[in-house]
Every structure is written in structure tokens, then in C-alpha cells.
Automatic annotation (TrEMBL):
Compartments, as annotated in UniProt: Cytoplasm, Stress granule; Nucleus
Protein name: MAPK regulated corepressor interacting protein 1
Protein encoded by which gene: MCRIP1
Lineage: superkingdom: Eukaryota
Keyword terms of this UniProt record: Cytoplasm, Nucleus
Region of interest: Disordered: 1-29, 74-97
């Protein structure tokens, strides 16, 4: 397995959009959790908008790809996983207990 550079999207913009209302759920979230989700949602919407504008040529330099020059050796064996699937499995395990 060869190691490849890790890339990340870096956003250099401001928060200014409103979040969507969450769907009905049996889960109860704390106000702090809701604020964190709202912040991430708003920031990501800005990133997507700025990336679209940048790709269409109307804006430049707001979104750039960050590539680590030297990848972290402790992440060498990291394998991505689906968080939704992990949550579903943990919920099912908890119900069995």
C-alpha cells in the first residue's frame, strides 16, 4: 500500500446563510449540539457556494485544496468508514443488550 498525500478543503470565508430545519427525529439534541450542527452546516454551504463561484470564474481564491507535505505516520493504517453505518450498528447492539 502506498501512502498518498492527505487533501483537505480549506475555507477562508464568513458565515452568512441560514440552516435548514432538522427533520423530525426521536433523538433529543442539546442546544450546544444544535449550534455545532448549525455552524458546520452554514460553513459547508458557504464552501459549496464559493467553490461553485470559483469554478465558474466569478470568484477566485476563497477555497483551496490543502495537501499535507508529510502525511502523519500514525494515520498510515487508517481506513475510512461510514459513520452512519457505525451508528446504526451501535444502536442495534445497544438494543440487544
Amino acid at each position: 500500500m502506498t501512502s498518498s498525500p492527505v487533501s483537505r478543503v480549506v475555507y477562508n470565508g464568513k458565515r452568512n446563510s441560514s440552516p435548514r430545519s432538522p427533520s423530525n427525529s426521536s433523538e433529543i439534541f442539546t442546544p450546544a449540539h444544535e449550534e455545532n450542527v448549525r455552524f458546520i452546516y452554514e460553513a459547508w454551504q458557504c464552501v459549496e457556494r464559493d467553490l461553485r463561484n470559483q469554478m465558474s470564474g466569478s470568484e477566485r481564491g476563497l477555497v483551496e485544496e490543502y495537501v499535507e507535505k508529510v502525511p502523519n505516520p500514525s494515520l498510515k493504517t487508517f481506513k475510512p468508514f461510514d459513520l452512519s453505518d457505525l451508528k446504526r450498528r451501535n444502536t442495534q447492539d445497544a438494543k440487544k443488550s
